[in-house]
Amino acid sequence: MDVCRAVTQRISTRAFLPDPLSESEIRDWLSQAQRAPSGGNTQPWRTIVLAGQAKDDLVKMAAPVIAANPRGQETDRPIYPKDLWEPYESRRRRVGEMMYEVLDIPRENREGRAAWFSNNFRFFGAPVAVFVVIDERMGHGQWGHTGMYLQTLALLAEERGWGSCFQECWGMLRPALKEYFKLGASEMIWCGMAVGKPDTSHPVNTLRAERACLDETADLRGF
Ligand SMILES: Cc1cc2nc3c(=O)[nH]c(=O)nc-3n(C[C@H](O)[C@H](O)[C@H](O)COP(=O)(O)O)c2cc1C
Predict the structure, then answer these.
(1) 147 CA closest ligand 1 atom index
(2) 133 domain residue, yes or no
(3) Ligand 1 pocket check: which of 88, 149, 151, 167 to mutate, most ligand atoms within 8 Å of Cβ?
């Protein structure tokens, strides 16, 4: 698969088949992703990858914690800045509305929307769960490099015929995850990721999120 196709074809997959992925497939995938670039070649990421019972145990641990803290556990690193401003807030809302539209869950059905959202904490049924860990002492540069690593994982997954969904929602359970995984004192979970074969029959996977037009985000000079 060429890069252009992988980039164009990748979507956030939010429904998966239960088919397992083998340890050797996952090792091969992760080994290739190690080629992701990072400033100073620091490679400031660490992953925790769960399948089978290990994934089920994590899901079991998370369920009561998210039920007790539906807005997430206390954190000094909220997922979005407070009072997200335009145009970002509108984009964020728009993709949410598009998703609930393909799922046919109207705004008034708050319970239905909450129930759908809670699928995040079961990795949307994916057989493999990835957590990307970063050292809190790292700066904005290293957070960015870790993002490059995440995208590398997603594109390599695409080439393998797997779907993936990045999951910042796991940041809502940072303290619980830190304790559960016995992370180092300065380590934190940055992002989760669900990985597996996509359920192509599920309506949620028909969603094609929009993008801003190029001139909104790119400033070309001197051409
Ligand atoms: C770092 C990161 C975290 C994300 N976290 C979540 C998440 O917690 N749950 C979810 O359903 N989608 C999540 N997404 C998916 C975005 O909503 C999605 O990438 C965006 O709407 C564009 O859609 P696309 O990935 O299908 O192109 C995340 C994406 C990124 C890059």
Answers:
(1) 1
(2) yes
(3) 167
Residue 77 reports pLDDT greater than 90: no
Supply the pLDDT for residue 44.
97
Give the model's pLDDT for residue 145.
Answer: 97
Residue ranges around ligand 1 (CB below 6 Å): 11-12, 14, 95, 120, 165-169, 191, 209
Q: What is the DSSP string of 5-65?
A: HHHHH--B---B------HHHHHHHHHHHTT---GGG----EEEEEEHHHHHHHHHHHHHH
> Which residue is closest in CA terms to ligand 1's atom 9?
167
Tens digits of per-residue pLDDT, 156-169? 999 999 999 999 99
CB contact set of 90 (below 8 Å; sequence gap of 6+): none
Domain that holds residue 31: 3-74+122-208
For ligand 1, atom 13, name the residue with the nearest CA.
167
**What CATH number has the domain bearing residue 149?**
3.40.109.10
**Span from the CA of 152 to the centroid of ligand 1 (angstroms):** 15
User: Which residue is it, tokens 């192509």?
Assistant: 200
Query: CA 130 to CA 51: how far, in whole Å?
Result: 9
CA angle 165, 2, 198 (to 5 degrees): 30
Residue 223 lies in a domain: no
Query: Kind and range of the H or E element at 135?
Result: strand 128-135
Task: Indicate if the pLDDT at residue 69 is higher than 90.
Answer: yes
